[in-house]
Write a structure and sequence with these properties.
The chain is an alpha/beta fold. It folds into two domains: about 270 residues, Alpha-Beta Complex (Spore Coat Polysaccharide Biosynthesis Protein SpsA, Chain A), CATH 3.90.550; about 80 residues, no CATH class. It is globular, with a radius of gyration of 21 Å. A hairpin with a 2-residue loop joins strand 7 and strand 8. The strands form four sheets. Strands 6-9-7-8-10 form a five-stranded mixed β-barrel. A four-stranded mixed β-sheet has the order 12-14-16-17, with no helix packed on it. The chain is built from twelve helices and 17 strands. Helix 6 packs across helix 7.
Length: about 375
């Protein structure tokens, strides 16, 4: 099937695209470039990537699931994906980081070439927690129907549970159908006061869940995203487009996020509110929302004993941890290292890691 060829509506395939290339420095010291957070059991007993693949299986089989990651992680990602039937050819390695616009564009090119321009892409990240998985899948299915019917770029905006300054927001425009709205504006992470105002105004969290037909998405990138468009045209329409390599493609693009590079520029973006207990598991503090809590509100993993301790997050990979008479702490142990901070300051771990001497942070001295 050629890239421009359409398929009948009743046989259009759905494809899952999982972004799994980040490092997750806010989960130092256990998240490292060799073992990033998507390969760690942060929200439950299995890794975040395992949970993502399992969550999508009822909607999309493994042979129609693409996982985007960096070259160094391919072996680990392959081992985690194989039990779900994801073939090696579906692991797309980014030779250099180039932003989400390029990553999703490259995935869309592969899908268009394999399944035609009408194939629907369900794009998610590998480091989320979802409380109600049935509602999550229902929202993705609804978004797929809207994307096909309206030939639009659809995002699922999360109904906020709090005014969180750690998330971007989407302001809804006019309704175009029941429960479907034009996306009026994307807002980068606001301060806490502005976040409270936006929640009161009915804005939604920008989840990073995107659904679209491959051809519609690629056409919009060619129109609105000059950072990617020249390399994309070669990959889609060149005489050797099927042979163009990832290294060539990624070397020719300018890094830009999909939000800035396309969604803020296109007039074909729709948003659907979603309410299924979504969390992006961005910091240690998030585990107090995504893990099961004990009677005192502690979120613990590993051999942990607490007494008169409340609201703590503990992740013990090596050795036992005992907390007595303390509250709102984050305690993380691994072989040869223990980190203790507060829930509030745990969001600053990226800055801490950048300040550490190389021998302590795991970098060469």
């Amino acid at each position: 099937m050629t890239p421009g060829e359409s398929t009948p509506a009743d046989v259009v395939a759905r494809w899952a695209v999982i972004l799994a290339g980040g490092v997750g420095s806010r989960f130092w010291p256990i998240s490292t470039p060799e073992r990033p957070k998507q390969l760690l059991p942060l929200a439950g007993d299995q890794s975040l990537l395992h949970d993502t693949l399992r969550r999508l299986q009822p909607l999309v089989p493994g042979d129609r699931t693409l996982v985007l990651t960096n070259e160094a992680l391919v072996p680990a990602i392959a081992a985690a994906s194989a039990p779900f039937g994801v073939p090696a050819a579906n692991l797309l390695a980014e030779p250099v980081p180039a932003g989400t616009a390029a990553a999703l564009a490259w995935a869309a090119v592969q899908i268009e070439q394999r399944a035609g321009r009408d194939a629907v892409m369900l794009c998610v990240h590998a480091d989320w927690a979802v409380a109600d998985e049935d509602k999550f899948r229902a929202a993705l299915s609804h978004a797929a129907e809207v994307a096909r019917e309206h030939h639009s770029l659809v995002t699922i905006g999360i109904v906020p549970s709090r005014p969180d300054p750690g998330y971007g927001y989407i302001r809804r425009g006019p309704a175009v159908a029941g429960g479907v709205y034009a996306a009026d504006r994307f807002v980068e992470k606001p301060n806490r006061a502005r976040a409270a105002e936006m929640v009161a105004d009915g804005c939604l969290w920008n989840s990073g869940i995107f659904v679209w037909q491959a051809g519609d998405f690629l056409d919009e990138l060619e129109r609105h995203t000059p950072e990617v468009a020249p390399a994309l045209r070669t990959a889609r329409h060149g005489t050797r487009n099927r042979e163009i390599g990832a290294r060539t493609f990624f070397a020719a693009v300018q890094p830009v996020s999909i939000d800035v590079g396309l969604l803020e520029r296109s007039s074909r973006v729709l948003v659907i509110p979603g309410d299924f207990g979504w969390d992006d598991v961005g910091t240690w503090a998030a585990l107090a929302r995504t893990r099961a809590l004990d009677a005192a509100g502690n979120a613990v993993y590993g051999p942990v004993y607490t007494k008169d301790a409340r609201g703590n997050v503990v992740h013990a990979e090596r050795g036992a941890v005992v907390l007595y008479g303390v509250s709102d702490l984050v305690v993380v142990t691994r072989e040869g290292l223990t980190v203790v901070t507060t829930i509030e300051r745990s969001a600053d771990l990226k800055a801490l890691v950048e300040s550490l001497p190389g021998w302590l942070a795991g970098r060469p001295a």
